[in-house]
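>> received
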Amino acid sequence: MAFSLQESFRTKVTPLPPLTDPTFGAKFDKFSNCRVLLIGDATHGTSEFYTARAKITRHLIKQHGFNIVAIQADWRDGDAIDRYVRRRLGPKTGADVAEKETAFQRFPKWMWGNQETQQFVEWLRSHNKGLTKAQMTGFYGLDLYSMAASIEAVLNYWDQKDSEMGKVARKKFGSLQPWIDQPQEHGLGKLLEIFKNCEENVLQILQDLLDKRLDYAKSYEDDEDFHSAEQNARLIAGKHDLR
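>> returned
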C-alpha cells in the first residue's frame, strides 16, 4: 500500500526541541564534516527562522570549527560587519573598529537589519576576541548589487593608500554618477551601446588597482583591505558584464 504524504514526512523528518533548549544546535552535529553547509529559511524575515539559523551557526562555529559565515547580502555590507567582528583596523582611523559601520541600508533592509542578526554579530565579535587571525570567524556578503556603496569603498581605500590614484578613480567613476542610484537605467543605456566609455573607465580602475598590488604589499600590511577593495572593484565591473 502506498504511503500518504503525511506518512512519508514522518519517516524523513527529525523532530527538533524548542529554540530555548540549549541542545538545539547539537541536533545538527551530523553536518559537522561538511565543508560548506547551506542554511536557508522559508520566510526571509521570520524571527524564529533567524533565531534557529543563528543557534545552528553558533554551535557549528564553537564546537566544530566552522570559520566563515557567508550571507545573502551585499559584499560591502558584509565587509563592514567583518571589520567589526574581527576587529580589523578602521579604513580611515587606523584603529580597532569599536562600532559597526553603516550596513544593510539598501532594500531589503529588514532581511539583515534586525535584532536577531545584531545579536549574532555581537556574539561573533565576542567569540573572536583573543583568538589568532587564523582562528577567527569571518563574515561575508555574497550579493553583487551595491554599486554605489562599492564605489565609495574603492575611493575610500585609495584616498587612504594612494591619494593620486584616488583622484584618478574619482574622475573615472564620475561617468557613472548619473546612474548610481538608478542602475536599471544604466542597463538600458548599455543595451543601446551608449555608455561604452563608462565600461572602459570601470575596467581601467580595476586594472589600475591590480597593477598596484605588489607596490601596496611592500608598503602596507593590509592584505584584507586590498582584497576588499579588489572585490568591490570587481563587483562594479561585474555590473557592466565585464569579465
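>> The first helix runs from residue 5 to 12.
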